[in-house]
């Protein structure tokens, strides 16, 4: 299978998943609030791709949700190509992906993040994952998350879960705070074992993400909370902001490759606090 077909199939899947997730989240909000959509282009003069980001705000259940799709191409800068696999000899690249960040009104429900991407330089690879950031500890919820992710990983390779969970725990860590961002999940990058099998894994993760967030939200969206718990949520969101601006690869990649700033920063919560 040539690279153009691989690129088309992955890009089509990410766009389809964006539609599926947005419709599903609007249903959870009882269709009373809809996503607002904005399309963007990487370069206004020549064709270098672009994307669409959708944001739902100020709902009864969701305080802010961002669902971003992109497909961009062009040339890496001399600085960037040093750090990107396969780009040192040829700076041309193609990249597509979907990123979802869910910030809840109810502090009993955690923030949930998911993204998957396919990048092509002189060769192609997948990356992505999902993780959960609660402000109120819930061991049952943590167990559900990891059980479902393990089941999904085991359908593809028995070694994936342990490897990708460890990678996630290491990645979503704030060194300056000496603390994890949340309760983990899975994270992977430079995945290029077998394209057909890897793409199947990527699609399965998207479906599993949808199932997990539905399960978490449905169990808790009616649960009452206190002003003290809301304050805890704001403080935890501050940690979320710190990680995304200081360490997140996706944020850095998007800003360094001329992505849309609004779309890249849609992951940030609408309100956050610091002690």
Question: Mind sketching the topology for me?
Answer:
Blueprint: H1 3-28, E1 36-41, E2 49-57, E3 62-75, H2 78-81, E4 92-104, E5 111-120, E6 124-133, H3 139-154, H4 160-171, E7 173-174, E8 179-180, E9 185-191, H5 195-220, H6 227-246, H7 249-256, H8 261-264
Antiparallel strand pairs: 1-2, 2-3, 3-4, 4-5, 5-6, 6-9, 7-8
What does this structure look like?
The chain is α+β, with helices and mostly antiparallel strands and 275 residues long. It has one domain (3-267): 3-Layer(aba) Sandwich (oxygen-dependent coproporphyrinogen oxidase), CATH 3.40.1500. It is 42% helix and 27% strand. The protein is built from 8 helices and 9 strands. The strands form 2 sheets. The protein has a 7-stranded antiparallel sheet with strand order 1-2-3-4-5-6-9. It has a two-stranded antiparallel ribbon with strand order 7-8. Strand 4 (92-104) and strand 5 (111-120) form a beta hairpin. Helix 3 (139-154) runs antiparallel to helix 5. The longest helix is centred in the first third of the chain and has 26 residues, at 3-28. It is globular, with a radius of gyration of 18 Å. The termini are far apart. The mean pLDDT is 94.
In short:
It is built from 8 helices and 9 strands.
Q: Mind describing the biggest β-sheet?
A: 7 strands, antiparallel
Q: Give the number of helices.
A: 8
Rg, rounded, reads 18 Å
* Whole-number count of domains: 1
Structural class: alpha+beta
Name some characteristics of this structure.
8 helices; oxygen-dependent coproporphyrinogen oxidase; globular; 42% helix; two-stranded antiparallel sheet; 275 residues; alpha+beta; seven-stranded antiparallel sheet
